[in-house]
């Protein structure tokens, strides 16, 4: 069975992230009670982002290729200083900053941007096969918002990634 190269998976992840949360994509039907869901498909790939909450939130993104889960990311974010930043303002800063990062055709850290009086930072280790990272927003010299994330390729019990032939 043919499988797409890792660079095709990475390109699809950037496209999906660009077209869903950051691009104000059309919500998908919720998979679980109280969840907010976004979905994007192209070719053999499907991306689904399912999260809960608002000011403090948790979520998971999963990419399937030909109906098989092949990649995932989990995240938890929170407003630390509600007197410095609202959830709505944090969302605006995140969207404007990630839009700039995705324009570089990537989704992992080592990125900084400013939006008004807010500074956005993203650092990570690893690559699309396995990674962990943190994003945060500073305002008035203090960390007002933070998010931790991690993820990578999904492998079966034999250690094969879903992108590989069975």
Topology (elements, then pairings):
Blueprint: H1 6-19, E1 27-28, E2 36-42, E3 45-53, E4 56-65, E5 68-79, H2 87-102, E6 111-115, E7 118-127, E8 130-139, E9 142-153
Antiparallel strand pairs: 1-2, 2-3, 3-4, 4-5, 5-9, 6-7, 7-8, 8-9
Shape: globular
Could you give the distance between the termini?
A: 8 Å
Low-confidence stretches: none
Number of helices: 2
Query: What's the helix-strand series?
Result: HEEEEEHEEEE
* Main structural class: alpha+beta
Give me the side-by-side strand order of the main sheet.
1-2-3-4-5-9-8-7-6
What multimeric state do the chains show?
A: single chain
Mean pLDDT: 93
- What is the share of helical residues? 10-25%
Q: Tell me what portion of residues adopts beta-strand conformation.
A: over 45%
Q: Count the beta strands.
A: 9
Main sheet: strands, sense, barrel = 9 strands, antiparallel
Computed over alpha carbons, the radius of gyration is: 16 Å
